[in-house]
Known about the structure:
Strand order of the largest sheet: 4-3-6-5
Largest sheet: 4 strands, antiparallel
Order of helices and strands: EEEEHEEH
Number of helices: 2
Structural class: alpha+beta
Distance between the termini: 32 Å
Amino acid sequence: xxxxxxxxxxxxKKEELLPFIYVKxxxxxxxxxxxxxxxxxRLTEEEAHKYYVGRWWNMGIEDDYxxxxxxxxxxxxxxxxxxxxxxx
Length: 88
């Protein structure tokens, strides 16, 4: 279990961290070129949607290359692992 300790008015409070979810982030630039990236993040599905969708992300390496997130997909690795095992 992942936990963190924060202090409020000098009192220690134990908080549980959210588990990682894996998010596939779909991007589009102003010319219509699309790309995506996949990342783990400790948010709920709703919070991840609010965090990514509608925001511009700088995907440039040497120069700025802004791309707009137009949707996300929550990936469920345990489901794909179970599907692979059932194919054996």
